[in-house]
């Protein structure tokens, strides 16, 4: 399949919207990461998303609409608590889970009786949804298991030849995916930390639960049980100061390994590795979030044998950063003791 590359002009959006109406799959920018969109009411279109990504069929998709007023068309009811969340966080990096009324294709919800809905806070993303006049089912536009794409180039690397089109809207802003919140019960439950922090949700909704641990046998959010965000080389998280971090670099190098480092300033400038990537200032965790997936993908074009990454405090967006880093490092120890 030839993958058409679109700019963000009106003319391009019209063409991309036509593809979507012909049950094709098109990647588009949002403020979090690039999404891979298809008509959420069409089984045929949605099945192409799963095929292009190599995504397991039991992992449901988020439905993207252009305005919060559209949510009611896909759900059975919106509680007062859910409406409060919608009013405060949508549009934005926030996904709400409500009881589905069955309008979207069964493959979108993977057979669950709930549906996840998001209104992206991105001009191009919303313009596309409006032009297509469809609800768009859209997971992150990466091959399953890889870091999510924050540029059109990342999408191209993963999905060229597998999808009908890519709209280039430049680099995304938040850099990590939306916060997924189950609003079907009495209190909001965070199934995946993301762009909106737990504190921000607590400020408007009172008590909030944070769940979605990888260890849960039956995760509420089915996507939580799969490997995610993995760079080509193994990733190890290093919990410790400069001396401790440098010791680990040296020890891998003594084994003959080429070592890559992902760290923030000032630490990144103090460490000596084979290749280092700075993901911003440690005192600005939103900058670290913006650059994190870029950093994980950066090393795919290098010959490093192992990547060592700094850890961050789990406050604010640090929750989401550590959630993604921990998963990206699956099967590799988080080293927090001396060698
Ligand atoms: O920022 C984002 O959320 C991006 C952009 C493109 O909007 N999308 C995204 O989609 O990250 P995806 O498919 O990579 O992640 C969706 C997550 C998965 O963990 C999935 O299991 C969960 O949302 N999910 C979707 N529908 C659900 C439902 N009905 N109940 C529980 N979890 C659900
Ligand atoms: Mg994803």
Key attributes of the depicted protein:
eleven-stranded mixed sheet, alpha/beta, 19% strand, 2 domains, binds threonylcarbamoyladenylate, five-stranded parallel sheet, globular, DHBP synthase, 31% helix, 11 helices, binds magnesium ion, 339 residues, 16 strands, Rossmann fold
% residues in beta strands: 15-25%
**Count of helical segments?**
11
Q: Which whole number gives the mean pLDDT?
A: 93
Q: What is the CATH topology descriptor of the largest domain?
A: DHBP synthase
- Biggest sheet, spatial arrangement of strands: 1-8-2-3-7-4-6-5-9-10-11
Bound molecules: threonylcarbamoyladenylate, magnesium ion
Oligomeric status: single chain
Total count of domains = 2
Roughly how much helix do the residues carry, as a percent range? 25-40%
CATH architecture of the largest domain: Alpha-Beta Complex
The ordered H/E elements are: EHEEHEHEHEHEHEEEHEEHEHEHEHE
Distance between the termini: 51 Å
- Rg over CA atoms: 20 Å
Can you put this structure into words, describing what you see?
- The protein is an alpha/beta fold and 339 residues long.
- The protein has 2 domains: 207 residues, Alpha-Beta Complex (DHBP synthase), CATH 3.90.870; 101 residues, Rossmann fold (3-Layer(aba) Sandwich).
- Helix content is 31%, strand content 19%.
- The chain is built from 11 helices and 16 strands.
- The strands form 2 sheets. Strands 1-8-2-3-7-4-6-5-9-10-11 form an 11-stranded mixed β-sheet, with helices on both faces. It has a 5-stranded parallel β-sheet with strand order 14-13-15-12-16, sandwiched between helices.
- Helix 1 packs across helix 5.
- The longest helix is centred in the C-terminal third of the chain and has 14 residues.
- The site of threonylcarbamoyladenylate has 29 residues, from strand 5, strand 6 and strand 10.
